[in-house]
Amino acid sequence: MIQVADRLATPGVLTCLGAVALVSLRAGRTHRWGARGGPPARVAVPVATPTNERMKAASQTRVAPLIAFVASLLCASGVGAEPDRADMDLAVRDLRAEHDHATAALYALQSGGAPAAEAIRDAWPSLSVLAQKRAIAALRVLAKEHDAAVDALVAAARSEDEQVRELGLAALRRASHQGRRGLVALLADPRDGDLAASALARTDPDFAVTHLLNAISAAGGPDRPGLRNALAIAVRRAKAPGPALDVWLEAEPPPAAVASAALALSTIEHRRDEVASFVAYALRAPIDFPTAWRLLQSASAAATSVPIDRWVAAQLTEPEEWMLRAAAVDAITARGAREQARPALMDPYPRVRARAAAALSGDAATLVDRATLARRDTWPLVRASAVASLRTEGDALPVIVASIDDSMSVVRVAAIEALIPASHDEGWDRIHRRLRAPNEWPGVVAAAIRYVVAHCRTDAAESLFRVVMRAAPSHALTEDLNNAARAIEALRALGTAEANAVIERLRTTPGVPPTLKMALDEPLADGARCETGGS
Question: How confident is the model at residue 390 (pLDDT cuts 50, 70, 90)?
Fold first, then answer.
């Protein structure tokens, strides 16, 4: 029924259809509702038999052209019917009726103007879900001119029924100027506000910027990532968002809101100056942990600012929370002063040391410190990060090679990964042992296979066969199956006589899963074959 109404929902047709519907409603008032304002008569509900269903479908097929035909006759002869509130109340009540009566009511409401919008709004809480869905078809038309219809769509967007919520929000998006007010009203809603914010940002970004900033300033606003994402979208799409940003900041919003807005703007390259202004403003007052964390994230993208640089440097050591110290390492590095993060290699918290090691990769002044962390730190996370940071420094090669035999798999993986892009084969013997070890962790095996392909290690064919056979038992782990597939691809990439012989062995070896045998004949990706491999 809603689809039929949408197809006929043009201004001229709606006026005529509304006149026909009103005539129908008024003529049928005595036998369906009794006297105006009287209680509805009892209506027999038909049993849903196949015959009734076919009759209902046929009625739905006939109703649109029939109404359109009658409307054309009435409009041609100048017949019309002015809606009043009593008529619209009756039409709203009939939205719950069977198809034909509900269709007539819908047309009456679509052309019913302010009385229809007010009738739907006032009756909304008492309407069934079906009647609400039908009413939204009328509200889509009415909301373009009438505030009461917008209010009803806001109520629809807050419905407990998911489909009603989606229909209400979609109708507000389509209602252009009037609908924007409804979307703004929804911004504070904890459940649907983020969807409204996204819709507003995409529908009218220049209008949205100020209202999204105000929503971020409200209670709980700084902690809503949905509002930040919508603000970033609106600022990117708006023609001139700068003045709105300036006016909002001049109004002295809370520092927490400014930090949240700065984080949104930090994702936009050409807004670096505004980000710096926002961060500098927020630093004028005492700030809590969430605000400080957002400001550190934003500082990574802020324009040059001496006060911001000083504050970020202080965060490397002053905060008790390790997350702030770790974020300060990233921020000071992004601002081009990573040398100030050198003391963080000795931070008491392991995640800060790991972050500092990664940030200082290639820093000659800290080579010894990072090598020491790679071999002696008690935390595997730190050792792995330190090993990865040494990958471009030739003097640290012995440390990387030794780490292939670290007691923790995450460090072994980091060491092998660090050697994959190298132009030499230092450490291959240790990597090969890891590839052959029957109890090696799958992540280490996967890294070793990548090394074999990158260095075209033709002497690894037999070891790759063993990797495939680890997936032969019916209880093989998913990681073993994945590594078996990688090993087959590596054998095909090697392309040597030895590798091809192993592939033929796998075709006839009992226990190899059928899916892996199928992989033996899969086309090799372009560029996957080793340069030194055979054809």
Answer: very high
DSSP 366: G
Residue 117 and residue 152: Cα distance in Å, rounded?
8
Contact 427, 419 (CB under 8 A): yes
CA 251 to chain CA mean position, Å: 32
Distances (CA, A) of 238 to 241, 260, 277, 484, 494: 6, 19, 20, 52, 54
Q: What angle do CA 480, 483, 484 make, to 5 degrees?
A: 85
pTM assigned to the model: 0.78
DSSP code at position 477: -
What CA–CA distance (Å, rounded) separates 380 from 409?
9
Rg (the chain; Cα; Å): 35
Of the candidates 510, 506, 474, the one whose C-alpha atom is nearest the C-alpha of residue 488 is 506
Angle CA(150)–CA(156)–CA(157) in degrees, nearest 5? 90
What are the tokens at 73?
A: 């006759």
| The pLDDT of residue 128 is above 90 | yes
- Residue ranges in 158-305 assigned as alpha helix (H): 162-174, 176-186, 193-203, 205-217, 225-237, 242-250, 255-265, 272-282, 289-299
Give the separation between CA 313 and CA 308, rounded to whole angstroms. 9
CB 451 within 8 A of CB 487: no
Nearest-angstrom CA–CA distance, 429 and 402: 11
Residue 188's H or E segment, with its range, is none
Structure confidence by residue, pLDDT tens digits, 448-474: 999 999 999 999 999 999 999 998 887
